[in-house]
# Entry
Amino acid sequence: IIKSWLHNHKDIMCYQYLNGYRLVVPFIDKVTVNARETWNGQEIFEVLSEYFHYNKSDAIDAIFGNRVLVNGGVVNCPTNQIKSGEKIKLYFHRHEPEVLNYPVDIIHVNEHIVVVNKPCSIPVHPVGRFKKNTVIEILRAEHPELIKNGKKLKV
# Structure
């Protein structure tokens, strides 16, 4: 269910504006990591709790809610042991911090670069808790013509 939702909604960018702030509508996100050597033999429940800071009930909910995959297969047992190098995917509900609702002004555009004047509260690219409330993603949503032939946006 989550995979089909992500596939069908991957390009949707939903912003809301409230009291001078730009907010991102909460969304389903994923993190993919390769299991560290130090995780070898540990139970998935321990890995979620210790390394991803899940509390016990959230870890159990994620496992039994089919939101934890190891090497592409759903993990449905908290005692499943992790092996070094396995690919772990975690799906979770993300809430991003708000940013000031000031415009990202485009100063100059050519075939190589986009020059902008951005508000100080908005990070340029995804970092930390910011994934969509960034200059790159705001420009992608508000000015899709800047993305040509699938090339990355250089700001």
Summary: The first strand starts at residue 15 and ends at 18. Helices lie at 2-9, 44-51, 56-64, 135-142.
